[in-house]
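Z., the sequence and structure:
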Amino acid sequence: MTKRNVVSDIDRVSDREHTVLAGERTNFEGKAVANAILLAMPDEEFKIIRGNLEHVDLAHHTSLCQPKQNLEFAYFLNSGMISIVFETREHDRVEVGVVGNEGFCPVYVAAGLRRTPYEAVVQIAGDGFRLAVDALTTALKSLPQFHELLNRYAALHGLQVAQTAGCNRLHDLEQRLARWLLLTQDRVGNGFLRITHDFLATMLGTDRPSVSLAAGALQRKKIIQYSHGSVRVLNRKKLESSACECYSVIQNFKAEMAK
């Protein structure tokens, strides 16, 4: 497998031309792998870490790591979504990034770091694999292509965090909500999202009435259907048009890195 193919596989796990498809790899317990990075690894490298991959069910609101605490595990999702959350000393919280089955978290372990400034929280329940940081650090010394995949995803995720920070400061709430819904739909794989007013307010760094106004505006345009505890995307193209440029910046850079 060439270097170019290894990198491009991150974004083509569902493509029938891909060497390894979701479900064709398993951990030692026989649990199917659907994480893009784990599927993009060469066979000989995957075999080395396979025995250390522990399958985990990830319930809604599970905290996977806390700021400034020693990191124990890296997580590779099969399904669901993780929010990367920044919290101030006054306990105000805002989401600065998301992770689905395209990546892993916390990304800092790829550089050998053992702490993170952010909390990683399961916002949409799913499942995946965890790998002890000690085992990962040791394995990376002999897994160059796996290490490259992790580093490239970490760079992409860093862009997402930076773009989201600027977006939260400079763009209006309706645009930010559209951007968030697009990123979430990309990772969940369908247009029905179980989310509440309070959750969206926290993730977007605003209050519940403001979220209701922004969601109501998108609903009146028949872009989404918004009810208590859920959002359904009705028109993806219109949702993309309603989002700020931050979504396309993230997507374009993701495509550039996959070349």
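The chain is about 40% helix and 20% strand. The longest strand covers residues 81-87.

Let me know what you think.
H.
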